[in-house]
Protein 1
Amino acid sequence: MLKKKWTIFIAASMLITMLAGCGGNSGESNQTSSLDSSGKTTTQSDKPVVLKFWGGVPAEYGPQLTVDAFNKEFKDKGIQAEYIRFVNDDTGNMKLDTTLLAGGDIDVFMTYTSSNLVKRGTGGMALEISDKLSKAGFDPAKELGNSVSPYIYDGKVYGLPTKMENYYILANKNMFDEAGIPLPESWTYDEFRETAKKLTKGEGQNKVYGMYWNTIMEIFRPSYIAQTVLGSDFLYKSGGKETNLDNPEFIKLNQMISDMMWVDKSAVTHTDNVTQKLSVESVFLAGKSAMSLGVWTIRSIKDLEKYPHDFVTAYLPVPVSDKSAAKYSIGEGAAGDFICVNPNSENIDKAMEFVMWYTKGGMLSMTPYGRVPMYQGIDSNKIVDEYMKNGEKILDKNTVVKFLEKKDNLAVSTETKKLPEIQKVFNDALESIYTGKKDAASALSEAKISADKFLK
Amino acid sequence: MYLKLKLSRQLKTDITGYTFILPNILGMIIFTLFPLLFSLFISFTDWDFTKGLGNWNFNFGANYIEMWKDGWFTSSLFNTILYSLMVVPISIFLALVLAVILESYCFAKVPMKLAMFMPYISNIVAVAIVWVMMYSPWGPFTLMIKALGWETPPAWLGDYNWALIAVTIMSIWSSIGYNILIYSSAIQGLPQDVYEAADVDGASEITKFFKITIPSLSPTTFFLVITTLINSFQVFAPIQIMTRGGPGTSTSVLVYYIYTTGFTFFRMGYASAIAWVLFLLLLIVTLIQWRGQKKWVSYE
């Protein structure tokens, strides 16, 4: 009997402590939140608002410098910022989305693709800021250039594009000089292919290839080159009811890539790429290819400790199928790095101050790591200087300047209907082309048929 | 009066009991039961994960019909079955042979067993990355095969026909240690008198292996077949790291496709439907094995 009493007592006390545990927690959080709000209302000056800024770039590649600069400038205005990194992949973006949906502790965040921007804007995860911008006297089209217009949806701004995108080919200038080939200002596919052939030398493990297509990171990337002729929304036929995968431009481009890999043997094959898990760093920066795709690897190019090299990297425009038909400069989308405000933030106005500061030049501390500001009010020499920082000896300034020039003929993708599915079909087809299994014409026309099913 | 007291005492005991298991039950309900039922529910909707909770329409099993017309699904299903058909028999038979050799003909049993068990307890991500290097054209595995006389070995992970086999080889290598361990402990428990009787009758080692060892280990084999099969149907990590389903769809397996549909296409409803089909498949296969065991499993 006594024993039983004890068990009941222990059980009951366990239950009570458990409940008390819950209660204690909620009590604590109540306390802190009340402290917060009182701190805000009464003593704003000694306890600044700390904005939580989420971005996908590792803190040491610019964001920390940016936030530090902001904190220094806004010290007396009662605003501070703190950078939190999320990994910019599917999983990381999902984490950001769920945190936003759950009303999490985020004030400002970056969005990296237009499809995510639309999704977040229409899903209540990113604040519509057009009226706030007009109140601040900021007209995106005027201040950031015409290429922002595709990212304004029926007058709604879900995030300000801050970074200009452009798409260039990396070239090992020393190898070009050695082979006596001048750096081209523009070139056709045929000229490009010839050059790659001339630059290929050696055999086996010591072979130096003319071109490294970097098809492993995203097999889709080289196909952006077709945008020079096809322009915006190059994946869809007009009307958006059919995909454009069988377009002759795609066929010509991808057949050339495949031929360079398997016929000329002047480019690293996709198979080698997959089986050895290669990268721009392990091929181009190791001196194993004369050219590559991947201006975005500027962080690695400048990191001489991790990737020691002494050659000069030049930026070359992408080849085009036909010089007279190529009307567009390409980006993967002309603008990127959309800075957004969390609609559930408690400090929306202060967050907007940060957004404006960042867009209007605060982001310049990111430029040495490859992020080129869109804001027209920044002196272009300053941008060049920032971009060249710590890379004066290994970057070819003459060609980099051309890359950094403001361009008004950027091709911009806006149609995103069923894009992930269409891209997967496209990727499967590209894989069969780049492994030499199928020719481009048949693989792409088959791909078009299966991709079209998603648009019905 | 007495009855009432007794009832309440019973009640008290119940309360005590349930209080003790309450934390566990709560955890089970929140983290297992609820997600389970929720996934069953959304598998009948067209829920797009990005549209937020509540924005779904019922499509009355359309997901379950659609998947059979979906080429990515059917090839993933095919690859899963093919993979299991390779992994299960090879890894179990090889483990049995190795366990017998280890137990009866081997010096330094313990270090040997440990060496074979190492891959199993190593992190699968690390193991997969090491194997990517092994398979590369300049990797040890490829060079070894070249040295053995195969002049143009396949591109392994980059080859449509060999990629799945390459993953299978790695999976067998990494999981075999566990099977060996289970088999060796079962072998140690086998009655010696049967073997002695066979020796008296003049049976050869091979005959003893096939007529005594295999039949008396059948309960262990049965257990391993079921667990290995379930594991191989759920393979994900090596695929994600080594091939990402490629080239083409040649190594896309069901769980990887569920992941793609859910987190690349954001079609949670469809992904859940596939997950439930995978569950049903596993259930059916296991039930068939359970029925079939009467024919070949003997518990003495």
Protein 2
Amino acid sequence: MKIKIIPFFIIILFLVFFGVFFKGLKNSNIYVPSYNFEKEIPSFTVSLFDSNNEINSDEIFNENKYYLMNIWSSWCVPCREEHQYLMELSKVKNLEIIGLNYKDNIANAKNFLDELKNPYSSIISDPDGLIAIEWGAYGVPESFLIYNKKIIKKIVGPLNDNLVIEISELIK
Amino acid sequence: MKYFKFFLIIIFVFIFQISNAVENDLGIKITKNLRCLICQGQSVYDSDSEFANSVKILVSQKLKEGFSEKEIYIFLKDKYGEWILYEPEFNKNTYFLWLLPVFMFLLGGAIVFKIFILKKN
């Protein structure tokens, strides 16, 4: 009787491990932080990009409008690709695009905007990347659609046709 | 008196160095316990990505503001979720993970007990 129990136990154990690892194979190993959409957007003091004036972030997001906060940088290649979509969205009436210039050289950033035009109604700068951390962002580009001081959609990575359509539908 | 002053200076220098070292060590310990979200599989301490460098700045800034180690973890967990911490929390997803070693230990103990102690009797 003892001899039969041990192989049986080993087979069961093997099957359990096989099941666990097989399931693990199919999981995505790219982690995207989850975001609590109930939370209010962070409040912080920040300096504006083209002047050294410091303002509180509450002054930026205070109107009854949709805001798209876009984290960008002149050294970021996908930002170049998504710029045309931002230009497209900047024509939408009910939407204001705020740029967060992430760890950038100001002269390079200005050249970038001269070359590709400026879709942002205002730009704040984040030389150390600390404001991006307040937002729970970890790379460029990243965009947040904000309404009523709450984030209603978070986009990691560059915008594309589908996302532009989705955003236009959300802000109707 | 001259010697006294000399010793006083030396003691001050050492105290200053020690306090500085403690703060740095804590910063290193914290960043080693944080997962870099861009280069997954590396800690923030090991990584040189833009994100990791920002987190390093943030940690040293928070330490200067008087945050404790735990408060920094809570702050980052609130922003990025539990994944950023290397130590998983004890919840329904991790029961197996946390309890398996205890279970193995008890099983091993039972085997040892059975083989060596019960047989001797």
